[in-house]
Amino acid sequence: MRVDRIVEDAILESIHRNRVNLLSEEAGFVDNGSSTTLVIDPVDGSANAAFGVPLSCFAGALVEDGTAKEALTTWFDTGRAWHARAGVPTAFRTTGRTTLKGASVCLMRPKTGTQDAWLRIANSADRIRVLCTTCLETMLVAEGTVDAFIDPGSDTHRIMDLATALVTVPAAGGVLVDLHGRPFHFEPDLTHRWSGVAAATPQLAEELIATVLGG
């Protein structure tokens, strides 16, 4: 969408000036010969933004030699931002919830083939939200506003959808994993897909996964 391009064009100018690489949902991989790559989703929730729904954000992670080191997510409509460095505890923390019963869970909207798994989560949790912006939803897990976020098997996520959560959620005491245990990797090939699971604790992540796969 045009809103993605507006944000991305400004970042392209900066990465060329600073001689770092870029991996973006829109531009793909821009190689400036650096060991550092900025992995971004210029506007996560672009459909929300285009229609005036105030749920969209910028998400970017600095990756050095294939490892995410630092991340920033900024909520456009409020200005709230979440910054984290790998291995450094954040000022915000997850809820620490360990069980799905009583949990507040953000879910990706049900898609073909995931409806049954979606309903199993919805029927087990206390509250369900569908906000249509993974990068923002995983930050809500990190700060303890909700207990978890899960894609119940649609394999929608590309690496830029999960890059900031890979740094921020663990720094806040939570976990980010793939539904099927696939490792996350930063490569120019954007055909790789995942079903991300962000949870306040490993125990909650395990129960979410078991509920999705247990049908």
Automatic annotation (TrEMBL):
A biological-process GO annotation: signal transduction
UniProt binding sites for Mg(2+): E25, D41, D44, D161
Cofactor(s) it depends on: Mg(2+)
Entries under Gene3D superfamilies matching the protein: 3.40.190.80, Fructose-1,6-Bisphosphatase, subunit A, domain 1 (3.30.540.10)
Single GO term (MF): inositol monophosphate 1-phosphatase activity
Superkingdom in the source lineage: Bacteria
Keywords per UniProt: Magnesium, Metal-binding
Protein name: Myo-inositol-1(Or 4)-monophosphatase
Organism field: Lentzea flaviverrucosa
